[in-house]
Structures are given as structure tokens and as C-alpha cells.
Specification:
alpha/beta; 5-stranded antiparallel β-sheet; 27 helices
Length: 753
């Protein structure tokens, strides 16, 4: 199943065609990785060339050393002269070989560091920053899996890009040295060897292209295997597996998945075997012909034994160099495709509106203001002809399935709206569109009269506090799971005030020195968590400069209090949110209180919460964020009746001054809202207050009657079966009475005639 956004899918297809047809499209991943290596260490880019020079020098000395010894012996040179020449050549050979070895080791260390500190971090950032619509799509999942495969192993993949490029340069340099020596024997031999090398390179490229076609099959198989290995080992899955005896079924699924994986790997191994066999045949033809010609020249000319040894080593070097170059090019092509997979994922993850050339800066971060401006008190929404669809593949064909159909709706600032309806009516999709997680296929959503697509994504998400049906927790403390990295509305407004005070202080500084110090202090106040600031320590700010910086800090933040006071205030707010969510007593009863870590399978001293407690914690998180829009998607589904009643009593306080959307299947809870929207088949079928919809006597009234009937039966102590039997008898009696009246009327009419 895939979400569909018409504009976005069209642009992505155009970008895909552009990458295929544009000559520089395949160069972009290489440029991306080279830039990454350069940013991680400028010396890294120089290493391949130094390795190339040292390896070529070592190879040349290794070929000339036997010639020097044999020519000296054949001429009858003095022993001391022989030892001097041999020793000098040996020292140079050892030095160049050692230099090449050290440089290769340095390159390997730089590559491993680049993998773990840069590529892995970039993949994680891409996963976190990817648009939700792209994140849940089949294409997004496939690209993410291929990119993960590209950086999952330190021995192959994108990490071998620079070492692979080094191997090509090294093989090419050695080949040029050997070809230069063989060319003095006969130029035709060099042309013959290069011709066969071209054939081998062409065949190797075809084999690599065939292996590339298997990557999507391999990624799909890996994703299924990873799900079976990691997705079925949790506590929630473990209960179902044991109660319903899933182990046999899972074993069959795993066997089929492993068989699919083996089939894909078998195809890749077959291609690799064909490549190696063809290379071996060419090697026999190439080197055999060259050796035959060398032996013929040695027997029919005045070639010395030293020259014969040099040419023999050079021909061997040409053959080995060609083989090494072919293998290096083949490996580099494969590495380049891994780099392409990673680069494509990074482009896709950072795409979104930027692909369409749209500006993501709008009401709260215009070109004249900074991100993180003060949040307005009231937020209103207007849906104008909004439609959304997803498409699914059935029988090899893509079918579009509409979810939201031509929706027109206005939610006023501060209004509390309840959304109800049967499963599949479009309630969750409506909320995702409202939150900006999905983009409408048609129409637009206005926020305070402004198109939602013109907002900064971070600022737009900052407008919402949400409790979804399915949410996860990080393996950190309860306090961190509540506070996360969000800024409450009051904190954001306070930050805006701090910036304005900083600007005024800098403008009023009388000297250039004080202005510079103030800018430095204001800059450092937003980077307290940077590593270089932590390493600096308090001693770095001592002296006159430190005094001025301290003075400037006092001017900048004198009306905001100390950071410790802010932290204490945040802790107080957190405990207040826990109390309102009904989780305060539980957290205080834990040995470490709010510092207790969640996710027990990762933290040994951690704790696990029940389903209802998890829902309370999510509610506390939403309350702590204090955003102007509150989204509650079945917030009491896992709560007991007492806790649910407490949430309803506090609902007015939660939503005071906020625009709120409340999704629930328990219609008794909707009476707390200003308006109720009944969704049916992607449209708003009914709208009004609880009393108005009951008086309307439509679908809402019918659903409410069905639910309330159970509660009435419990109150009266009457069994459901007895009640239904009585209602059936009553309806039958009414029907019989109606028939008797009709018959009596007909008889009276006949007598009258």
C-alpha cells in the first residue's frame, strides 16, 4: 500500500528520468562521497595519490633489482660494487613499500572513521528528517533498506569508495610503468594486451550490471529477514506467538524468505563465476602469447639475462596489472552503485517540497524573521476542496483508493472538534493531513489564512501536541521521554524575547570590542551542548575577556533568570503534566522516580509500563509541549473507567485556549466538544453538537443508541437477550395492531359503499 500525492509523485518521476538521462547524474554520488571524505579530513583526498606514487616506485624497483644483480654478475663486477648497488636498491624498495603500507593503513582507518562518524549519522538523519509520506511509502522503505545495506558492513559498500578509487589509481600507475618497459620490447605487445583488457572490462561491466538488477530483490529479501529477526522478538509479539502457536507458521515463513534470499544470492554467485572464468581464459591467452614472443626473442637475439628477467617481470606485471585494474574497476563500479543507492536515499529523504521548488518558509519563519518565532495564541484551519488517495497493487496493476473526498471544513481558533465514524471512514488520514504528515492530492489547507505548504516544517510541527494510537518510547528516562527536545510555547516566546534583547544590547554598545564580545556570548548561548564548548572549560573564559562576556550575558538575559531556574521550572511543569495525566503516583513510587529508564530490555534497571500507563505518559508528553493545537487520537482507549472519567473532567482545562481535535469511538466522550464531525466514506456526513446530532436522528444518533444501550442494560440489570426478545415482541404486536386497523378501515369502507 502506498500513499499517493499527485504533484510529488510526478516530480519524483521527472527527477528519476533526469538522473538516468543526464550525463553527470552518475557523477553526483562520487562527488558527494568525495566531498564527505574531504570534510572529514583534507589529507584523506591526498592519500590515494601518495599511495599511487609509492606503490609505482616500489613496483619499478622490484622489477629492476633482479636485472641489476644479474647484469653485475654477468659482467663480473666487483663484490663491493655489487653489494653497494643491490643494497641501495633494496633500501629504496623497502622504504617505498613501507610508505605504501603505512599510507594504505591510514586510508583504511580514515574510511572506517568516515563510515561510523559520517555515513551512519547521515543515514540516521535522513530517516529522521524524511517526510512521513515518503517514510511510509514502498519506495521510501526500499531506498532506506538499500542505503542501509550500502553502509552496513565495513568491508564492502560505500565505505570502500576512496579505497576503491585508490586501487584503480595504483593499478593504473603500475600498469603504465610495466607497459613502458614492455613497449621497448615491441609496441604491438602492449596494444594486444590492452585490447584483451578492454574485452575483459566490457564483460565485467555486463556482469556487474546484471548483479545490480538483483539489488532490489536482495533488499526486499533482506527487509523480510530483518523483520523476522527483529520485529518478532518484542514482548507484545511474544504473547501472541505463544498463545496462538505462531512458531510453526513463522518457521514456514522464514524458510520461504531464506529460500528467496538464497535464490537471489545464487544468481549473483553464478554471474560472479562467469566473470572469473572468462577472466581466466583471457589471462591464459594474453600472458601465453606475450611469454612465447619473449622466449623467441631471447633465443634469436642478443638479449641479456638481466633484460630477459626485466621483460619477463614487466609482462607478468602487465598481465597482473590488467587483472588488478579490471578487478579494481569492477569493484569500484559496484561500490559506485552502493554510493548511488546511498546518495539517492539522501536526496529522497531531503526532498519533499524542495523537489517542487516550493519555499518552506512562511508565516512563522519568513525571509525577514528567524525560525522559532513566537507562536500565536489561536490557530484556525480551513480545508478547501481537499482530497487524498493512496494506491495499492492488485494483480500487478495499481489501483487508486480515495480516502478523503473533496473535503471543505473550517475549524475556528480555540474550537474543540470531535471526529467520529466507523473504521476506514478517513479519520486518521484527516488528522495526518491536518498535522502536515500527508500532503493533499488536491486542494489546500489554510492555517490562519496561510497555505500550510508555505510553512517551515519544523515550525508547523511545533504547532501540534498529539497523542496517537501507536507511539513509541526511547530507552531513556521518563523525564526525557516527556520533555524530549521540544520547547514549550512559553519557552519559544521567551527565546524570541532573548534575541530581541540581544540585538538591542549589541546596537547600544559603545565600543567595537564590547559589540564583538556580546555577539560571541549570544552565539555561544545557543550552542551550550557543542563538544568544543564542553571541552573549553571555565578556565577559557577567565580574564578581562571573560569578565566582559559575563557582563554581557547579564545584560542579555537579566530578565530571564538563570538556567538552573528554567530547569527547575521545567521539572515542575513536567510533574504537573504527570499529575494531570494520572501518572504522578506511579512515577514517584519508582526507585529512581522520573529518572527511571524505560525499555527494560535495553536498560537493566529500567521499567516497563502497562498499556494504560503508556497512554498516560503520552498524554503527559503532549501536555508538556503546550502547543496551540492538541490532537487526541483515542487517548483513553487503554484506560480504566475511573482514569477515563478523570481525563474527561480535565478535558476543558487541557484544551483551554487551544484548538483541539478529539478522535474517539466512545461517543459518550464527544459531548465535551464544541462540534462533532461524523466521517463516512471520506466525507463529513453529519456535523453539529451532541444534542443537535441526536435530534437529527441520523447515523450518529444510531451509533450512540447502540453504544448507550449496553450501559442502560447494565444499570437496569436486564439481560441483553431478554431486552431484545421484549423489543421483538413489541414490534410484532405493533405490526399486528396496524394490520387489524387497516382491515377494519377497509371493512368500514366497504359497508359505507
Amino acid at each position: 500500500m502506498k500513499y499517493k500525492s499527485k504533484d510529488k509523485s510526478k516530480d519524483k518521476n521527472q527527477n528519476k528520468k533526469k538522473n538516468k538521462n543526464y550525463p553527470g547524474g552518475h557523477f553526483l554520488p562520487s562527488k558527494y562521497l568525495l566531498r564527505g571524505f574531504y570534510d572529514s579530513g583534507r589529507f584523506n583526498i591526498v592519500l590515494p595519490f601518495l599511495i599511487c606514487l609509492s606503490a609505482a616506485a616500489a613496483g619499478l624497483l622490484a622489477m629492476y633489482l633482479p636485472k641489476i644483480v644479474l647484469d653485475a654478475v654477468e659482467r663480473g663486477a666487483a663484490a663491493h660494487r655489487l653489494f653497494l648497488q643491490t643494497g641501495a636498491a633494496g633500501v629504496l624498495l623497502a622504504g617505498t613499500s613501507l610508505a605504501a603500507m603505512v599510507l594504505r593503513n591510514e586510508l583504511e582507518l580514515a574510511s572506517q572513521s568516515f563510515l561510523y562518524t559520517e555515513l551512519t549519522a547521515r543515514w540516521e538523519r535522513g530517516m529522521l528528517r524524511m517526510d512521513y509520506e515518503a517514510f511510509v511509502s514502498e519506495r521510501g522503505k526500499l531506498l532506506a533498506e538499500k542505503a542501509r545495506n550500502a553502509i552496513s558492513n565495513p568491508n564492502w559498500g560505500a565505505v570502500k569508495f576512496l579505497p576503491g578509487l585508490t586501487a584503480i589509481l595504483e593499478a593504473l600507475a603500475g600498469l603504465l610503468v610495466c607497459c613502458g618497459i614492455v613497449g621497448t620490447l615491441h609496441p604491438a605487445i602492449v596494444l594486444f594486451l590492452l585490447l584483451l583488457f578492454g574485452v575483459q572490462l566490457w564483460f565485467s561491466a555486463r556482469m556487474q550490471k546484471g548483479k545490480q538488477k538483483l539489488k532490489e530483490e536482495r533488499a526486499a529479501a533482506d527487509r523480510r529477514l530483518n523483520y523476522l529477526a527483529w520485529g518478532m522478538r518484542g514482548r507484545k509479539e511474544g504473547k501472541d506467538i505463544r498463545l496462538y502457536s505462531f512458531d510453526v507458521l513463522l518457521h514456514r515463513i522464514a524458510q520461504r524468505t531464506i529460500a528467496d534470499k538464497r535464490a537471489v544470492e545464487g544468481k549473483a554467485e553464478k554471474l560472479q563465476f562467469c566473470n572469473m572464468l572468462f577472466a581466466a581464459l583471457l589471462l591464459l591467452l594474453r600472458d601465453g602469447t606475450a611469454y612465447f614472443y619473449l622466449i623467441w626473442r631471447f633465443l634469436h637475439s642478443g638479449m641479456t639475462l638481466g633484460d630477459f628477467t626485466l621483460y619477463f617481470a614487466a609482462i607478468t606485471g602487465v598481465g597482473g596489472g590488467l587483472l588488478k585494474l579490471a578487478q579494481a574497476v569492477s569493484d569500484f563500479l559496484e561500490t559506485g552503485r552502493y554510493a548511488g543507492d546511498f546518495f539517492e536515499f539522501m536526496q529522497y529523504s531531503m526532498g519533499g517540497a524542495e523537489e517542487k521548488g516550493e519555499s518552506r518558509r512562511g508565516l512563522f519563519c519568513s525571509s525577514e524573521s528567524e525560525t522559532g518565532a513566537a507562536v500565536p495564541e489561536g490557530i484556525s484551519f480551513t480545508f478547501e476542496n481537499v482530497s487524498f488517495s493512496y494506491y495499492a497493487e492488485q494483480n500487478g496493476e495499481k489501483q487508486e483508493i480515495p480516502v478523503i473526498r473533496n473535503l471543505n471544513l473550517t475549524i475556528s481558533a480555540g474550537e474543540s472538534v470531535a471526529v467520529v465514524g466507523v473504521n476506514g471512514a478517513g479519520k486518521s488520514t484527516f488528522v495526518k493531513l491536518l498535522c502536515g504528515l500527508l500532503t493533499p492530492c488536491e486542494g489546500r489547507i489554510l492555517v490562519n489564512g496561510r497555505d500550510s505548504r508555505s510553512f517551515c516544517r519544523e515550525d508547523y510541527f511545533g504547532l501540534f501536541s498529539a497523542v496517537f494510537q501507536k507511539s513509541g518510547f526511547l530507552p531513556v528516562s521518563i523525564a526525557e521521554n516527556i520533555m524530549l527536545n521540544v520547547k514549550r510555547k512559553s519557552d519559544r516566546n521567551r527565546s524570541t524575547a532573548e534575541r530581541s534583547i540581544a540585538v538591542r544590547s549589541v546596537a547600544e554598545s559603545s565600543t567595537a570590542e564590547k559589540s564583538a564580545v556580546c555577539r560571541s556570548a549570544a552565539e555561544s548561548s545557543t550552542a551550550d551542548l557543542r563538544p568544543e564548548r564542553q571541552e573549553a572549560g571555565p578556565e577559557k573564559s577567565s580574564g578581562a575577556h571573560g569578565d566582559k562576556e559575563s557582563e554581557c550575558r547579564t545584560e542579555l538575559f537579566s530578565d530571564c533568570g538563570a538556567d538552573g531556574a528554567h530547569r527547575d521550572k521545567d521539572a515542575e511543569v513536567m510533574w504537573e503534566c504527570l499529575r494531570r495525566a494520572g501518572l504522578e503516583e506511579k512515577v514517584k513510587a519508582l526507585p529512581q522516580g522520573a529518572d527511571t529508564c524505560l525499555v527494560k530490555r535495553i536498560a537493566q534497571d529500567g521499567t516497563e509500563l502497562s498499556g494504560g500507563q503508556e497512554q498516560k505518559l503520552l498524554l503527559a508528553r503532549a501536555l508538556y509541549k503546550d502547543a496551540p493545537v492538541l490532537i487526541l487520537d483515542e487517548p483513553t482507549a487503554a484506560l480504566d473507567p475511573v482514569s477515563e472519567h478523570a481525563v474527561y473532567l480535565d478535558y476543558r482545562r487541557m484544551t483551554e485556549g487551544k484548538t483541539s481535535v478529539f478522535i474517539s469511538h466512545r461517543l459518550a466522550s464527544t459531548r465535551f466538544c464544541d462540534r462533532i464531525l461524523l466521517f463516512s466514506d471520506g466525507r463529513i456526513a453529519e456535523s453539529g453538537t451532541h444534542e443537535e446530532l441526536l435530534a437529527l436522528g441520523g447515523q450518529y444518533a444510531e451509533m450512540f443508541e447502540v453504544q448507550s444501550r449496553y450501559y442502560r442494560d447494565v444499570e437496569t440489570g436486564e439481560r441483553m437477550e431478554d431486552r431484545e426478545e421484549k423489543e421483538g415482541i413489541k414490534r410484532w404486536a405493533e405490526e399486528e395492531t396496524g394490520k387489524e386497523k387497516e382491515e377494519t378501515a377497509r371493512n368500514q369502507g366497504g359497508l359505507g359503499e
